[in-house]
Amino acid sequence: MTNREIAAVFDHVADLLEFKGANPFRVRAYRNGARKVGDYPEPLAVVSEDPNRQLTDIDGIGKDLAEKIEHLLTFSRLPMLEELQAEIPAGVMALLRVPGLGPKKAAALHKELQIDSLDRLQAACEAGEVQKLKGFGKKTEETILKGIELAAKADERTRWADADAIVADLKSHLAGVPGVRQLEAAGSYRRGKETVGDLDFLVDADEAAPIMDRLGEYPGVAETIVRGDTKMSVRLDTGMQVDLRVVPARSFGAALQYFTGSKEHNVEVRGRAKARGLRVNEWGVFRVDKDKAENGEDGGPLAGEYVAGESEADVYAALDLPCFPPELREARQEFRWAEQGELPRLIELADLRGDLHMHTTATDGKATLDEMIAAARQRGYEYIAITDHSQRVSMARGLDPERLRRQWAEIDRVNKQLDDLVVLKGIECDILERGGMDLPDDVLAEADWVVASVHYGQQQSREQITDRILGALEHPCVNVIAHPTGRLINRREAYAVDVEAMIAAAAEHGKLLEINANPMRLDLDDVHAAAAQRRGVPIVINSDAHSTAGLDVLRYGVLQARRAGLTAADVANTRPWAEFKELLGR
DNA sequence: GCCGTTTTCGGCCCGACTGTTTTCAGTCG
Q1: A193 and A63 inside one domain
Q2: Which nt sits closest to A270, CA to C1'?
Q3: How far, in Å, are A19, A115, A141, A144, A162 from residue A122 at the CA level?
Q4: What pTM value is reported for the model?
């Protein structure tokens, strides 16, 4: 089993245990274990087989989880999960997707009314049976009925680029409300996560009502879910939830830190605060009054001496921590890096000097060669590669050797007239279904830059598709594998390719791997890109542009690279042309 | 279930809001 498959098993166990009302810390241990396993940069099978290493060396993996991992690696199943599944029908777990229904209420519905599907839940609500249960009422019944509709589509997360457009629109709608000093979008959006579940807006103001009223007037708002003194949540027509939180200036940094998350990062932050006799919440960092705490006096969220809170940097500094870039706040490596003084200086968009994957009207691009070159110059690039499709991609009118050589002759001609940009003669050459490249070796040998990729036979077995890609990596003319797993976010799963084997082969043969910056792809993802970096495989961040505007997606790829902890040195196309040229080996 | 120059047992982050309550449980983030 892959790390991700093992992580999915642990997550599933956590869901089921939570439903059963198990010790919440035990549930957390499974969730935490799932995350650590899913993020781990090497296959656990490798760790397991290495006599010098222990699975329990991994943070968050103890004796019990280590045994379960061993079992999964050997048998690809976990009896404990099967027992839990036998105990709790899948339809009952589906109830948890209804907003407002948690494990306790779902369990009560199952126990008292034998409800085991969303359909039966709807029928019970409509018959007025639910409101008769203890702890339920008429209002709850109505909320559930409304929530059942949402449950179906509640799973879909919004791609970051789409969320970014909504954020921009909302920000301009909320701009200019009197009394608003600062306004920031926090949450997973700010962490640059590839998909975003909901949006969290944070406002620095003394009065909450004006900004809340303004949010309520946003044309895309379908309903207000909650509205209190400092917090408001609305649902947009699209189903996306938007949370608004209003705090005073002295709390803005603390609230920004808190609402940026991730949850796991914050658990760590607060745990560290506690060890120092401090308490961190969205209102600030406070020194805990020991006497009062021991007497069981709570005192509310503002109790104790205010230590920090105006800026995020102040909050972290109060805990002797650096102000982590939001992209790193996932409780992965960042605290260890901070302790060792090795927090990476993450790559920025301005570090990129070239773009090595783009198309023209010769195949399925919308702009001509000249237009793409002009657009690249306008963006100040030092070098680009023109990489149209090869002949196998017939739908895109892929290039055969003759048409390709004509294009290259044209590039030669154009290059002579350019003194501020180098245009590489490239090709996005298909890796054929049966293995091997889509163009003869003598043609590939004439290229400056060969991008290899899979477009057909994506459903092949793990072994088959891995062999194809490893074959391409062994080919002396291939420089890089483009969109290495083929996933399309929310649309298509990755191929079954063994990513670890691909990374190992790239390392062995001195090849590169792409972060495709198309917001639908972002492929490699953050975890795989970190794994590649760890093996010393250089990454290239490419636009895969099919138009001049398409060149501007690089920023999404940079965000993904930052989440992977990549520095400019890890990304090949940050190098000046003179250095990059060396890497071509031609 | 994990973890330890506060502990090998007893901790494990913290608060807002709602509905059904008459002091709080459940849910959410």
Answers
A1: no
A2: B13
A3: 20, 10, 9, 8, 32
A4: 0.89
